[in-house]
Design brief:
Structural class: alpha/beta
Number of strands: 8
Number of helices: 9
CATH superfamily: Alanine racemase
Strand order of the largest sheet: 1-2-3-4-5-6-7-8
Strand content: 15-25%
CATH architecture: Alpha-Beta Barrel
CATH topology: TIM Barrel
CATH class: Alpha Beta
Distance between the termini: 23 Å
Largest sheet: 8 strands, parallel, barrel
Helix content: 40-55%
Order of helices and strands: HEHEHEHEHEHEHEHEH
Oligomer: single chain
Number of domains: 1
């Protein structure tokens, strides 16, 4: 068995041993890796892949998605409004909706292209100046705006916890916020902390290096 597939299967069995309340989707974060390197995991039947740059994703996945209609592509990086149209054309999920201008632009392109993506609102739960995300205090009105005014299909919240701190308290807080909005999904947890994230209700974990190895 291919090494990547082996690592993936190990993660899958770790997750199932946690007996989560809801199914957990593993997003294999394939950014910076060549498609030929990723292909064994596609051949293995895995469908969810994550990228953080629109340009790289377009060159890598456009043909692949035509060949395999079941593939689901997740935009997990910071998305600029000027790249929103290309993102709507290619991606199925966007995890980083973090301001009104971006939300408006996505809604417009989605309508023009007759597509209906699924979205996560990124929350800046640690109030970090350098980090994207909606402040907790503005989350309710922003969520209502996205859903009721511009018709985005928001399925959950997303967080990248502060580095060098215990991620668990942030996962717990985000789970509570998610419940307060009666949302079904949560995008949180990466290679180092996906186990804790799942314990706090994450349904989409963004795992890269634990599957593909370290990036050069």
């Amino acid at each position: 068995m291919n090494t990547i597939v082996e690592r993936f299967e190990k993660i899958k069995s770790k997750i199932s041993s946690l007996k989560p309340n809801k199914p957990v989707n593993i997003i294999a974060v394939s950014k910076t890796f060549d498609l030929n390197y990723i292909k064994p995991l596609i051949s293995h039947g895995h469908l969810h892949f994550g990228e953080n740059k629109v340009q790289e994703a377009t060159s890598k996945w456009t043909e692949q998605k035509k060949e395999n209609k079941n593939l689901k592509l997740h935009m997990i990086g910071k998305l600029q409004s000027n790249k929103a149209k290309d993102a709507v054309e290619l991606f199925d999920y966007i995890h980083s909706v973090d301001n009104q201008k971006l939300a408006d632009t996505l809604a417009k392109h989605q309508m023009n292209l007759n597509k209906n993506l699924e979205y996560f609102i990124q929350v800046n739960i640690g109030n970090e100046i350098q980090k994207s995300g909606i402040p907790v205090s503005e989350l309710d009105p922003f969520y209502n705006y996205c859903v009721n005014d511009i018709n985005l299909k928001v399925i959950g919240l997303m967080v990248i916890p502060p580095i060098n701190q215990s991620a668990e308290k942030y996962f717990k807080s985000l789970n509570e916020l998610n419940k307060s909005l009666a949302l079904e999904n949560l995008s949180m947890g990466m290679s180092a902390d996906y186990i804790d994230a799942i314990k706090h209700g994450s349904t989409f974990v963004r795992v890269g290096s634990s599957i593909f190895g370290s990036r050069s």
